[in-house]
C-alpha cells in the first residue's frame, strides 16, 4: 500500500471527510520557502504561499533554527515545580517585545489553548474582583479563535466553521463585524457600545483579533475600532483580550496588529510564528493587575497547566526565531511583500474583492471556491495555496524574494480563474 493509499484509508486531515477526502500531496522535502512534492509520481518544487498556516515565517531548513534544535541539553521537563533557562529567557523576550504593561507570561502549547487560558484568565479575574456573575464574552462577528470548545464559542456562530455546535457551546454576545478601513466607524462604535451597555453586568471580557480577522473570513477592518474596544472595556470594567496568534510578529506590517491603533490590551495571545513553524508553541501575556485579580479568585491560582507547557526545545527555537526576525529586518521584508502582493493582485480588483495588509493578500470571490480545481491551478504555476470558503489568499514567509512573491501572485490569479 502506498503512502497516499494508507493516508486515505486511515489519516484524518483538517476539516476533511474520512469517507470522501480531498486529494493530498506527499511532501518529500522543504528548504527555504519551497516545498518538494511527490505529486502522483511527479516531483515538483513549489513556493509555499501559506507559511504552513502562517507559522513558518522564516521558511524551512533554516540553519540558525536547525542549530537551535541541536543546542538543547534536554527537550522537555514538566513545568510544575520546575523551570529552565529557555522558558525564562523567552518570557523575558516576550515581555520586552509586547506592548507596555503586559508583564506576566503563561506558556501554552497551541493557539487554541492560549485562547482557552485567556478566557479562564478573564473569568477568574472577574471572580477575583467580586464579579462572579460576569461569565460571558463580548466579541464581533467574523472572528475565529480556534477549535477547542471555549475558543469555538467566540468564533462567528453563523458564518464560521463551528455553526453546527450552536446550543452546545457557551452562548456569547456578538456585535456586528467591524467596518473596513474608511467605513462607518462611528455608527459601528455606537452599536457596539449599546450592546456592551445592555450586557455590562454579565460580560467578563471583549475578545477580538485586532485589525485582521483570520480563518473567519480574512477581513481587514479599521484600526480605529480597536480604540472603541479599549474605551468600552474601560468604561464597563471588562478585560480587553486581543488574539494576536495570526497577526503578531509583523504579519500586518506592525509588530503587533494592535500597534496600528496604539491600543494596549489587558491580555494578549500569541502563537503561530512564535514557534517559527518548527514546533508548536503559544503564550498568553497579561498585566500585573490581571494576574493579581486571577490570584484573588477562590482558587488562588490560574487553573490551567498543559503537559508540554514551557517545552524547552520549543522555547529554544522560539528564541532563535525572534533573533532572526530582528536580524533579517522583518519590517522591510513585510513592506516589500505587501507592495508585491498589491501590484500582483491589482488586476483582479474588477473581478473580485481584493485586500492586502502587510504580508497578507486576499481575493474574495462571489461563490465558494472549487478547492480541487483552484489548488491544481496554483500548483501548475508552482505555488502551494489552500483556499477556503469563497477565499483565495496567501500569507507567505517573510523570507520570500520578489520573484517568489510574483510567482505566488501568479498562483493566486490562476486559482481565482479556476475556482
From TrEMBL:
Catalytic activity: (8S)-8-amino-7-oxononanoate + S-adenosyl-L-methionine = S-adenosyl-4-methylsulfanyl-2-oxobutanoate + (7R,8S)-7,8-diammoniononanoate
Domain of life (superkingdom): Bacteria
Site feature Participates in the substrate recognition with KAPA and in a stacking interaction with the adenine ring of SAM, where: 15
Cofactor(s) needed for function: pyridoxal 5'-phosphate
InterPro entries: Aminotrans_3, Aminotrans_3_PPA_site, BioA, PyrdxlP-dep_Trfase, PyrdxlP-dep_Trfase_major, PyrdxlP-dep_Trfase_small
Residue positions, PTM N6-(pyridoxal phosphate)lysine: 272
Annotated compartments: Cytoplasm
Pathway where it operates: Cofactor biosynthesis; biotin biosynthesis; 7,8-diaminononanoate from 8-amino-7-oxononanoate (SAM route): step 1/1
This protein's UniProt keywords: Aminotransferase, Biotin biosynthesis, Cytoplasm, Pyridoxal phosphate, S-adenosyl-L-methionine, Transferase
Binding positions for substrate per the UniProt entry: 53, 144, 272, 305, 386
EC numbers: 2.6.1.62
Main location: cytoplasm
The family this protein is said to belong to: Belongs to the class-III pyridoxal-phosphate-dependent aminotransferase family. BioA subfamily.
UniProt function note: Catalyzes the transfer of the alpha-amino group from S-adenosyl-L-methionine (SAM) to 7-keto-8-aminopelargonic acid (KAPA) to form 7,8-diaminopelargonic acid (DAPA). It is the only aminotransferase known to utilize SAM as an amino donor.
Subunit details: Homodimer.
PANTHER family to which the protein is assigned, alphabetical: ADENOSYLMETHIONINE-8-AMINO-7-OXONONANOATE AMINOTRANSFERASE (PTHR42684)
UniProt name for this protein: Adenosylmethionine-8-amino-7-oxononanoate aminotransferase
Gene it is expressed from: bioA
